[in-house]
Design a protein that fits this description.
14 strands, 6-stranded mixed β-sheet, alpha/beta
């Protein structure tokens, strides 16, 4: 069977700068009946492992290292033997959550992760976090944007390690030039498309969103 995208929502807490908030996270599983990758192992390793079933987990890919996107990654890795991949610029954030466990490999801009005949190209998109990445899979007409781009605007930049001008540059230079019909699978909330978000870039800049 051809590669496909599966979607799981898990719930937990996001903690940073002394605050804690309840959040629902999108977990994306990409692959076929034999092998998959998980994009953002959030909150519930058991639920993610159940969704994977008996398929081989080739990698756990972290779009960034805020705790709500990585808190279940070590447990899932220990359970499956899959490597955890993270952009090195997010190691300081990673260590806040997992001080005694390092990722197993690095994500670099332009790197291609292959699974079930599908290529996912790593796009380094700092702003929400220094090592934030998106994953572009043209074969699936898909962009996995983490918390860089949402339906309605950029990810939040009001906390430590984030920067609004940087995220705007990342979105403008790395994402909005993709084909307009590309479906954007976000870290939280609903999907959108590149074409739906592109016309609003100047509005976001003007209001500092």
């Amino acid at each position: 069977m051809a590669a496909r995208i599966e979607h799981l929502v898990t719930s937990g807490q996001f903690t940073l700068d002394g605050g804690t908030w309840g959040v629902d996270n999108n977990v994306w599983i990409v692959g076929d009946d034999h092998e998959v990758v998980v994009i953002d192992a959030a909150h519930d390793a058991d639920a993610i492992a159940e969704a994977i079933g008996d398929r081989r987990l080739a990698a756990i890919i972290c779009t960034h290292a805020h705790n709500d996107h990585i808190d279940a990654a070590p447990a899932l890795a220990d359970r499956t033997g899959a490597p955890i991949l993270l952009h090195p610029d997010d190691l300081p954030l990673w260590k806040q959550t997992h001080p005694d466990r390092s990722p197993d490999g690095e994500l670099d801009d332009g790197q291609v992760v292959e699974v079930a005949g599908v290529e996912l190209t790593v796009l380094h998109t700092p702003g929400h976090a220094p090592g934030a990445v998106c994953l572009y899979a043209p074969g699936l007409n898909a962009l996995f944007s983490g918390d860089t781009l949402f339906a309605g605007g950029p990810g939040a930049t009001g906390r430590s390690y984030s920067d609004f001008p940087t995220i705007v540059d990342s979105i403008r230079e790395r994402l909005l030039g993709l084909p307009g019909g590309t479906v954007v699978h976000t870290g939280h909330g609903d999907t959108t498309t590149v074409a739906a978000e592109a016309p609003h870039l100047q509005e976001w800049i003007d209001r500092g969103f």
